[in-house]
Amino acid sequence: MNDLNIVHGVIVRPEGCFQGNIEIRGGKIIRVCPVREPVNPARDTVDACGLLVFPGLIDSHVHIRGGRFSYREDFASGTMAAAAGGVTTIVEMPVALPPASRKEDFVARVQEAAPQVYVDYAMYGGAGSDNLEEIPCLAKAGAMAYKTFLMPPVPGREKEFYGLCSETEEALARVMEKVAETGRLLAVHSELNQYVQAQTEKEMKSGHNGLKAFCRSRPVEAETEAVRWVITAAQKTGCRVSVCHVSTPEAICMIQEARAKGVDIHGETCPQYLLFHEDSGEHAGVFARMKPPLRDKARMEKLLGLYAEGAFELTGSDHAPYLKEEKLKNGPDIWHTYDGVPGLELSFPLLMNAVADSRLTPEAIARSMAQKPAAVLGIPGKGRIEEGADADFVLVRKLDVPKPLKITELFTKCRDSAVLYQGIPMHYTVEETYVRGKQVIHKGNITGKPGWGTFVSHEI
């Protein structure tokens, strides 16, 4: 007897949607069939008529941090947020205190998360010019991939960025050589400080403030020239790389051109760059400060079009949990606040808004939020609704009347910092989320248990 059958739903695959049934046993999908075919008996049956059934989504770029920063977000609150947003696997970035740049610190973070998580989790290890000898050790400890920044540590946060910075082309090549030996992916924060610093000083000396001034301070060239570094170093070393949170169409076109020439490089973007621009985000002020910044409307629209065409293989929220009082520590001063926005439980619902107005398709989301991330990162058993895969699903309903988003109802601890999203009419809702055959969300309520999520390591 099956443990669970999901019947009559519209099953979403990158190559197309069809009405079908799914049979689950032992946390795995054992059969997928058209709706007209009978299913074997099951202990539980979910009638998904009228619902879209997506594969469990993978967020490739999450900052939970936990530990000393658990007051901002811990692995329990963060993975509850993930489940509420249809994310069944998070890939946690290594920026923390201490960062996951030494084997013992990486292992400690895995152990910290284990009893708390509601969904499955993988972790990046740190890779920088100052922890080269630790890189192979992190692979053996289970690092799914690595992360490096092409910028110096944020002033005052140097300890959080140990083993995470490659500030010169030579340093980046050395880091890539080490990562290449592991066969893992290196994710790169691609902005160059020389462009940012000069423009920031110019804006500040001119007395400019506010979001648009901040966006001007981080010009397109800071990203594109950094991507040029990444491509060159990847060509020399053979390292597998991804460019994090791409914010410009120029950068993803460079990545596509390099891939066409045989470079093993992949692009990641975030919903905020696809759906918001410097004008539409201006009202949020410090709550819309992120790195890289929001761009102009024309670039945003072009980026969304490229996403719809499949240019991006990874989708990350870049969830950065800071409390409202932290973001406002210097009032509305855009130059002296923390970077980043919460988004872990909103990425998928926001992208579904773009489905509602025909700018995206469900297939495009399933490709870039599930199938491709699993393939690029090497996450076993994830990313598709097919026989033998993990029984990770998201059941989604289109609302008859859009419902304005209330950030007070979010699960994340940093909900009050989600000002950018307050009041947006949401056209779809996550009805249920399943992780390995177990329901963890039902109509906005947590039904799962902490510790159900498992640590996912690299598929060798």
TrEMBL record:
<dbReference type="GO" id="GO:0005737">
    <property type="term" value="C:cytoplasm"/>
</dbReference>
<keyword id="KW-0479">Metal-binding</keyword>
<dbReference type="InterPro" id="IPR006680">
    <property type="entry name" value="Amidohydro-rel"/>
</dbReference>
<dbReference type="InterPro" id="IPR011059">
    <property type="entry name" value="Metal-dep_hydrolase_composite"/>
</dbReference>
<dbReference type="InterPro" id="IPR032466">
    <property type="entry name" value="Metal_Hydrolase"/>
</dbReference>
<dbReference type="GO" id="GO:0046872">
    <property type="term" value="F:metal ion binding"/>
</dbReference>
<dbReference type="InterPro" id="IPR002195">
    <property type="entry name" value="Dihydroorotase_CS"/>
</dbReference>
<dbReference type="Pfam" id="PF01979">
    <property type="entry name" value="Amidohydro_1"/>
</dbReference>
<feature type="domain" description="Amidohydrolase-related">
    <location>
        <begin position="52"/>
        <end position="418"/>
    </location>
</feature>
<dbReference type="InterPro" id="IPR050138">
    <property type="entry name" value="DHOase/Allantoinase_Hydrolase"/>
</dbReference>
<keyword id="KW-0378">Hydrolase</keyword>
<dbReference type="GO" id="GO:0004038">
    <property type="term" value="F:allantoinase activity"/>
</dbReference>
<comment type="similarity">
    <text>Belongs to the metallo-dependent hydrolases superfamily. DHOase family. Class I DHOase subfamily.</text>
</comment>
<comment type="function">
    <text>Catalyzes the reversible cyclization of carbamoyl aspartate to dihydroorotate.</text>
</comment>
<dbReference type="GO" id="GO:0006145">
    <property type="term" value="P:purine nucleobase catabolic process"/>
</dbReference>
<protein>
    <submittedName>
        <fullName>Amidohydrolase family protein</fullName>
    </submittedName>
</protein>
